[in-house]
Amino acid sequence: MRKILPTILFTLALTVMLRALFLGGYLDFNAYYNGAMIGEISNYPPFVAILFYPFTFTSIAIASKIWVVLSVFFLFLSLYLCFKLFNIQFLSSTALILLSLAFTYFPVKFTLGLGQLNLLVLLFVVLTFYFYIKDRDCYSGICLGISIMLKLFPVLLLIYFLLKKRYKILLYTAIAFITIAGIGCLLIGPEKNTNYWLHLSSILGSTPVDYYNQSLSGFLARQVNNISLRGSLRIMISTFFILVSFLIIFKKRKKYFLSKTLEFGLLITLNVFINGYSWQHHFVWLILPFLIVFFYIKNKKLNVNNYLFLGISYLLTGTNLKNPTMYPPIIQSHIFFGAILLWLMTAYLLLKND
């Protein structure tokens, strides 16, 4: 009887998510599809054009539906691996509720609606995490290298593994990176690859003011008119968060399973909101930190207030304002504040972890 409500919630949430299959078009997938035909996708590493090239053997209408189905599979697999790592039965009541929350999370729906590749990146980030926890450094490094080559995310883990002296992970990350870059040069040609890397700084340095940019840069762009001051604040605040994060991680130098998971979640969250720009669909990557914090609270049997704060963070990051210009600029950064709250929760739990 206890599984009836979670099953109903799961069914409804799955139905809502799968509505993405019936959309008339997918803006970002169209860009991938057309870019794959010419071997270059604007603002993306060259390897992405190779990844999407097989889809060009069929019509864009059919290819887009195949990609959405694959993206849903990537999400299911990511969640399954997390549940397995934390010893949660995949179709238990807890799992069904968490699946329902993931399916109705706006960044997930936005990712599917655009035909974005974020859920594939999420899968490789989860695999990096999974193999890292399992001490399978070779596989962890390869998955991290692939993730970075897909969307330059999450690069802060490179610093983390360096300071943790997990040199084998870094070695295999470099091998994966160089191998994929080599494939890009071989199949696409060195000119387009060189063009991307030469313009990388301008891509990362852009600061769109749009509501959909919910990174630190987007928050500052909506609050500070002075461009020079905005740039300085961005550097100072990002540096502060990075330094504090690593100080917290290395304060106690604990190697417990739960400590390692919190450390990973802290850096994934940080990496999302200090990016040059983080569109709402990028916040799909917070699914992993959310699960890490949830499982920590559950495992430690912490006060119910922890679930309340986690729920507030989920609502802030998982909600979309249909008419954002109707709200004050500070309200338009609700997703950014939700990510900050998740970071604060993770940092607090990591500091008090026994």
Order of helices and strands: HHHHHHHHHHHHHHHHHH
Q: Into which percentage range does the β-strand content fall?
A: under 5%
Rounded mean pLDDT is: 92
Q: Structural class from helices and strands?
A: mainly alpha
- Characterize the largest beta sheet: strand count, sense, and whether it forms a barrel: none
**Helix content, binned percent:** over 70%
Number of strands: 0
The shape is globular
Distance between the termini: 37 Å
The radius of gyration is: 20 Å
Parts with pLDDT < 50 across at least 5 consecutive residues = none
Count of alpha/pi helices: 18
Describe the protein.
The protein is mainly alpha-helical and 354 residues long. It has a domain at 207-354. The protein contains 18 helices and no strands. The protein has helices at 4-17, 27-38, 47-52, 60-85, 93-103, 106-114, 118-133, 137-151, 156-163, 167-188, 190-198, 200-204, 216-223, 227-251, 257-273, 287-300, 304-317, 334-352. The chain is globular. It starts with a helix and ends with a helix. 43% of the residues are buried.
